[in-house]
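User: Second chain of the day. Same drill as before.
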Amino acid sequence: MGCRIGTFILLQALSLSSPYPDVLPRLDRSRPGPAKAERLHFGVERLRKKPGAARGRVHRVEMASMTFRTILSFIFLILLLLVAALSLSEDTAIVDFIQYWAAGKLFIEGGNPYDAASMASLEHPLWGANHFPILLWNPPPVFTFIAPLGLFSYANARFIWLLLNGAILLFAVMGELRQPDIRVWRPLVFFYLVTFYPALLSLHDGQVSPLLLLGVSMYLYFERRAKLSAEGRIDGGYASGFGLSLTILKPHLLFLFYTRFFIESLFNKPWRPLLGFLGGAVFLLIFPFCFRADIYDLYGAALTAPPIYWKTPTIGSFLQGMTGSDTMLVRFMPTFVAVAFGITIFTFRRVPFGFSEALVKLIPLSLLFSPYGWVFDQILLLPVAFVVARKLPQNFLILIGANLIAALVPRDAGAHTLIWYPVVYLLALHDFRAFRKVEAK
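Assistant: Same format as last time:
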């Protein structure tokens, strides 16, 4: 029984059951599903063409909807700025941002941003010599974004960084709220957003993870605007792929996402998103090299002693704790197995390229099987939550409960104790009522 349930969850997570977006049964009949929403949209378009009261009524309805979204977004932005202000007032806040500021300053001044002694020389005056220096492990493309921070003082730089992260979160939320088929009560959606623990933690720590969310959000935004071609493919254009290239700042977090993206590009041949991704990746890779020709040599030297001892909320770290073996092989074994399984499945059981929800469902699996990943990196689960809101609204309360429980876990317990958080999102993507019906038959 347990094996059958596990197989069912894995196949559903990989979106192999159907190539069409409306693969899950709509149990919430009180709200329109995607098909009905499309019919309502067509009706509104017809009324727009009619003069007089009908068109005026449609205009008032649309304006009311836009006003509600604007007010909701404005309140969300105020709360983000409040979190930012509280973070700036705490001495322990923005602890991760100090590595980006110090590395950017060393990058500009010709120092080694991957050297512990050089990083400590800039970090210790800010928060004391008793703390171990926070080292930078991101690949060199990250300097495209953090190098300008070295031009400012630490206080001004962290304020700018917080505003940038807040704007990115607002963009991601607005892009999801624009979807017409959200079937969850909007106040519940708002409550989920203000309790979304990875986003709050990312703002508090000043992490680079919101840039990854921006890349995924840009990909989904341009893909949803694209039209279905005669061959049944959705081509989001160069912009969708270019946006996705932002995620190479931490490429290990979305390795399954990349696997499917490349396989579908090769077989279904929508070249523009792939070319946009490659173009953006090449730009991010070359930009730091143009200013520091030795930057990749410095990064390679740092990787000779990787932090394999980190306890992260990933399966690889969990296996290290179970086996007592802190080796690279144990750490990366789940990643290798997931890649091999994904290549096999995606090659022989393909779905039309551009099925955004099929790709989004791979995010929780990528986070779990990634060799490294922290709680603030789980901000990438935000699009997954809106898939649940559109397809399985009865499971949305599970995500809210997960946010509240995660906020109650003390940080001293360690990030590895929240390995269950992506699992909750993976389970919320499935309709267990339908599974019980199949078992009953």
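Residues 1-50, 57-63 have pLDDT under 50 and may be disordered.

User: Great, on to the next one.
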